[in-house]
Amino acid sequence: xxxxxxxxxxxxxxxxxxxxxxxxxxxxxxxxxxQRVADALSRMTMEEKVALTHAQxxxxxxxxxxxxxxELWHTDGPHGIRPEVLWDDWDQAGWxxxxxxxxxxxxxxxxxWDRDLSRLYGDCIGQEARYRKKDILLGPxxxxxxxxxxxxxxxxxxxxxxxxxxxxxPYVQGVQSNGVAACVKHFAVNNQETRRTxxxxxxxxxxxxxxxxxxxxxxxxEGGAWAIMGSYNLYNGQFNCHNKRLLCDIxxxxxxxxxxVVSDWGGCRDDDEAVTNGLDIEMGTWTNGLRGAASDSYANxxxxxxxLERLRDGRATEADLNDKASRILRTIFRTSMSKDPHFGSFxxxxxxxxxxxxxxxxxxxLRNDGTLPLALPEGGKLLxxxxxxxxxxxxxxxxxxxxxxxxxxxxxALHEVFDTHAQxxxxxxxxxxxxxxYNKVWTGQDLGESRSAQQLLADAVAAxxxxxxxxxIGGLNKSKYQDNxxxxxxxxxxxxxxxxxxxxxxxxxxxxVVVNISGSPVAMPWAGKVNAIVQGWYxxxxxxxxxxxxxxxxxxxxxxxPFTMPVALSDGPLRSARQYPGIQEExxxxxxxxxxxxxxxxxxxxxxxxxxxxxxxxxxLSYTTFEVSGASVKRSGDGWSVRATLTNTGKVPxxxxxxxxxxxxEASVARPAxxxxxxxxxxxxxxxxxxxxxxxxxxxxxxxxxxxxxxxxEPGEFHALLGTSSADIRADVPFTL
Length: 737
Ligand code: GLC
Prior knowledge:
26% of the residues lie in helices and 20% in strands.
């Protein structure tokens, strides 16, 4: 309605303005973008420019009604379009036409290691945002997996900056091809949920530039992201929603970012810094950033009344204001007023098919003694144990919560496939999270349970007696201290007594397949006692179909872990409160978190320290086998071409991800044993071979020299390591710089 009103107003303005051939430039879609921006800016009052820079409702920031320039509508989240909310509310408004396609969690997308699927994902979710008339999609999230305990690991793309960077680019381009801005988050070094609004990340420059910035840099420089979200935490003593170094010096300076910086909701904390340190749109804040409720009206936001006061008394400059306003206008002309009309599409069969394919291609077969693919004899009985076979997982988890048109659970899909000729019986096995509502979105399930933990376990074991096979489907969920925004996990041990339950099921001697549904690593002390293990993710609307597609072999698994599965949390690089979750220190009210481990996170830590892990970064099996041969490294222009041949040596078609790691064995600084610098996912028929080549440049050999503030590749010997995981290196080719 507001858009129609503003457009009508624009027409009335035109009626008064002197008639010219094509009308004002800003309304002329074929005028160059920067001309439209400049023309609109020249027509605006100071008050109208200031209104652009802050929220006017929970998820919208103002436009210019007098000029017929519509407001900007922001929407969560990275996995699907959040249900409509009331003007100033977090809860859903109860519309009956905003149930979306729930796409898989981004960690599931990362596990596909497939750039094309990432583009498909971005395009589909961008279509849904456009159809729902949303201009800024608050995602993707690409914070690095520094600790497996991070509650939002499921929303991010793993522990390696190269993998996340390579996948975020096509996602952003897909979203933006629909006239919707991707708002890449949370910038930056925001790697935990514990005290996320009160923790200062203390990070040295080499670590910042080698680990925590690269994926954001690619999203901006290669992906062309139109928006970036500042994060809640502080970096080197300044809040990130107005962090001068991150936003002005690096993002807008070094990287030339021409889009908008949006604060996280409630992340803006200071009147003066909000004006000068690179923030363009202040969202969701109450005046002191932490107080709640409508009493702190939008007119009191840091970039509202306080900003007007500073402009009027000279403490703030019109130049800063014009830069903010120009960036916001540029975003409007790129989205709702784009020169190319976009209409999007919503909950189409194509979107659900895409969700199913992405979910399936990201499932990771961790272990298999041949029990998978699952086949049941005529009249056989499949015993399914575990709450996650039944519990719907799209609802919950924080701001990525969705109201979806439908969600196929694993149990639904198993019945579909096996009821025709076998018996599928479900035993809950344990009680995890009985919540079924979040932000007034209700799954419709009843997860109540009267039996005790002991009874539940006994019932599951008893039901196994005449079973042909046991399929365990458990793991985590999106409740507090699990995979959940706002809280971190407390350990990587499976909760709810699941280890004991799995051990008891293993002791029955029946074939036992374990599916761990989680968004983050879990300990698997029973890994050697079960026949097969699949790492399942929060797969969205089609998660059940995707899982059963893989379990039955309809889809040959090809996913690879985007993070390391350690044996125990204590094996990891964070060994003190100072490193995680942070400590209090004299002289500051904020918690201090020291990234003492430097660049050594994830496999960079485990491989360099030679610490055995449960399953390695990049690990994932198939129902076929692959061979790597003929590896070579040759000079090519200023860089090198690394080649190898991949052959499907098994009996069924399948895909392998050939990974290229670079190792610098002699350097003036401590460097990780290996670092991912290339990957290609190759689909091959049985017996088929394909040559894969990687082009690498000097930067791929470099480390970041903080003192010189540049990338440095030191002469000497390097190794090109080609493998199918960070631990399964099939070829090592030395070469010299
Ligand atoms: C939340 C999240 C952010 C989300 C925003 C709006 O606090 O940190 O990812 O997009 O607020 O819901």
